[in-house]
Amino acid sequence: MQELNIKVGDHLDLGEGVVVRVVAAQGSQIKLGIVAPKHVAVHREEIYKRINPGHREARAC
């Protein structure tokens, strides 16, 4: 896992047309804006686990 310290307004380019921008941060909540091609699924963890119940978390490199 990679941990980053970034500010509101900064963004991460994850490749394949996926960009994550920090829109707002207040207390322990962070609002993210995500741009991704239509063929890339974007889900919160609890939704992803419900959709893919047998999937295990990827190991850190």
TrEMBL record:
One of its GO terms (biological process) is regulation of carbohydrate metabolic process. It comes from the Bacteria. InterPro entries: CsrA (IPR003751), CsrA_sf (IPR036107). Keywords: Activator, Cytoplasm, RNA-binding, Translation regulation. One of its GO terms (cellular component) is cytosol. One of its GO terms (molecular function) is mRNA 5'-UTR binding. Gene3D superfamilies: Translational regulator CsrA. This is Carbon storage regulator. It comes from Metapseudomonas otitidis. The lineage of its organism: Bacteria, Pseudomonadati, Pseudomonadota, Gammaproteobacteria, Pseudomonadales.
